Amino acid sequence: MQFKEIKIGRHTLKYPIIQGGMGVGISWSQLAGTVSLAGALGVVSAIGTGYYHHRAFVSKQQFGRPDNTEQFYNREATFQIFKDARKICGNAPLGANVLHAINDYARVFRDCCEAGADIIITGAGLPMNMPEYAADFPDIALVPIVSSAKALRLIAKRWEQRYKRIPDAVVLEGPLSGGHQGFTYEQCLDPDYQLENLIKPVVAEAKAIADNIPVFAAGGIWTHDDIVKFMELGASGAQIGTRFIATHECDAPQTFKELLIACKESDIELLHSPVGYPARGIRTNLINLVDKRQGPSIRCVSNCVTPCKRGVEARAVGYCIADRLSDAAEGNLETGLFFTGSNGYRIDRLISVNDLIKKLVYGEDS
């Protein structure tokens, strides 16, 4: 199948591929800028921007961590990330991923608007008020991540009634993705909740809302043939995260990339998370320590996500997600939390973003 360009709101992508937003520090300026330059949609993660350039923009720290929500989701660093990405991709469409479950969602969303995002993607909850925060930026396309047709219906109904807007595109994320899932642990393992069985109802729901809402399938998609498979089921394209970690340009540290190359299928697990959702990642020293209740101290310095209740859920689960993801972003194999999709074990070497996109667009032999 030959892929065609695709519109998301007022923005046109050469290829119907979205690079998943991965934080902390995995998809920032280098990865997002290079992906957008190559014709797909590069996506900056707005999570933990206070760690950009080794916390150079953080004015208040405790224990080497950004002190409070404002420093963790650092406005100045966010602007710098977009500025650096634009040096690479120019005027090509550039996206941002802002999780709905974070503290200070409205402010972080607006920061991304002002910093220059063309398309904003939000998951980890139902972003019922998303258009409110983009009211002053009519050119910015709004893309919710959903896990069911019902979720899309609820979002679209609220947006239409309250804001006279509808989603410019939709990402349907199945339970094989990396990081947090929009499903219970049991649903992640249930055949009825796999992406193949979710795609047609969501495509039908999108079409019932409007004829021109593209649906991007996500979660476990790895190859050109996988993308074609879901396009034949009705999707307009795909969102892919983990494969982009294994690129030379990815902002992730070399230790993370080497960990992915070395990991086996049995090393990838569904983990408990303070966010309240199952999360897929690699079993490392951290997970072994947490299982024995011997994990690092939990101080809730950064106050990152609402569901954690200022460290209550972190203490129940056994680790602080902000601290552990930032350790991974800084290459700490002992205490880092390393997310990956279910197919992460298939990575055996690093390649360039350009080569990866060629493989996704034309096939593995390209």
The tally of strands reads 15
> β content, as a range?
5-15%
Helix content: 25-40%
Q: What is the count of helical runs? A: 15
Runs in which pLDDT lies below 50 for 5 or more consecutive residues are: none
The radius of gyration is 19 Å
Q: Report the principal-axis shape.
A: globular
The CATH homologous superfamily of the largest domain corresponds to Aldolase class I
Main sheet makeup? 8 strands, parallel
At CATH level 3, the topology of the largest domain is TIM Barrel
Number of domains: 2
Strand order of the largest sheet: 3-13-12-10-9-8-7-4
Instruction: Please write the CATH class name of the largest domain.
Output: Alpha Beta
What order do the helices and strands follow?
A: EEEHEEEHHEHEHEHEEHHEHEHHEEHHHH
- The helix/strand class is alpha/beta
> Distance between the terminal alpha carbons, to the nearest Å?
14 Å
What is the architecture of the largest domain at the second tier of CATH?
Alpha-Beta Barrel
**What's the mean pLDDT score?**
94
